[in-house]
Specification:
The chain is α+β, with helices and mostly antiparallel strands and 493 residues long. It has two domains: 236 residues, Glutamine Phosphoribosylpyrophosphate, subunit 1, domain 1; 202 residues, Rossmann fold (3-Layer(aba) Sandwich). It has 17 helices and 25 strands. It has a seven-stranded antiparallel β-sheet with strand order 5-4-6-3-12-11-13. Helix 4 crosses helix 5 and helix 9 crosses helix 10. The longest helix is centred in the middle third of the chain and has 15 residues. The two termini are 34 Å apart.
Length: 493
Amino acid sequence: MIRRCPESPDKGPIPIDNDVSRPREQCGVFAVYGDPRAVELTHYALYALQHRGQESAGIAASKDGAIRFHRGMGLVSEVFDRHILEDLGGSAGVTAAIGHVRYSTTGDTNLANAQPLKIRFIGGELALAHNGNLVNAGELRRELEEQGSIFQTTLDTEVIAHLVARKGGLPVVEAIGQSLSLCEGGYALVFLTPKAVMAARDPNGIRPLSLGRLGEAWVVASETCAFDTIGATFERDLDPGELLVIDDSGIKSMTFKRPGELRLCIFEYIYFARPDSDLRGLNVHAARKRLGRRLAQDFPVDADLVTGVPDSSISAASGYAEASGIPYEMGLIKNRYIGRTFIQPKQEMRDLGVHLKLNPLRSLVRGKRIVLVDDSIVRGTTSRHIVSLLRDAGAKEVHLRISSPPYRYPCHFGIDTRARSELIAAFKDPEEIERIVGADSLRYLSLDAMIEAVGCGRRDFCVSCFDGNYPVKIPEGVSKRMFEGPSGSPITR
């Protein structure tokens, strides 16, 4: 299957594997200590975090002084059944476990790269699961290989495991803390030993990680929606540079690296997190509604109805409708049995998913002027397809409103947009993109408007995908790609 080049319908076909239809986030992590239902709770929590990764899933549990684990390719429902959960210790009073769902932003798509990873070293057994990217993973890996380390995966997670193993003469908590002090990037990690659970967040807090309470037990998760699923209560977000240790003596907090400025990834509010999650005390659905209201204030248009691209844009679309007074309608119907298009690991599956996932409600959109609200445009292929769907269904006008600024710079902290050649807004202005996607008008929120609408200060977020100012120094070899055009030629900011 081929598509026509998104730059112009006259430039001929391109292979579909060049398309990047959505920003793609990496993973979700979960941990629990102190509840005899640990395996079962982890299993349920992974269902709540499934939106963060549909490529693989895994659980590691501490049982009888050893760590058992199971991981597999596919959805949580495909990887685990009753027999596997029982073998992990599902009804045997196992009180500590960690879990992971994955979409690959680094590393290949295969079982070896599924998580949690488990290692045996001089300090004992250790399992770990990771969300995010290390920008210096390549450098650290080369150093470790020169010192004799042999890698079994292509994950930067394994780099962390080898760093810990190299410090195996230290108590495991010190080994982890010293190893993480060498890591640069955005990451959230959970660790499991036979006697403890640990959790760590990068010094800038780019990737989210929260602590919760379930009776006498402690839980940690990428999003608070996992707490709601298992009946836990939110306690607090982990601080940047914090390492938590949870064992029979209670919970201890330490700083493994001096924290920088808190720079939570703004895309958690725009797209990644579930609407029912809270980040930094702000509800995601409420933040998205404010983004939609601000869009309506800044970019009004005469129209008959407002609709959003399911599911991540529904909240913003409802906010636009409320502020504009234009009725909100379900102009696009989502097939609930199709996963997030962007999160499929193979491009062929992502392309098929776009066509199967959405269908216009023809009787509703025919002859109407439509405001179509979406959260972002990466390459433009998905936006063009949706606009075309609405026009084919008889829409008279389609006005596209984006609840974030133009996505111009690659992310190196856990979102799979690591080359500028993937990003249509890096090389084209909104007027050109408007023509490419076929909309009657296209408007983006400004960076300042987005920050004001979310409700925190600009310095509280990582917005590097919009302005190119990274909170962590990017190694030269990694950053070179951000200044390359579609043909590999250098470009300027």
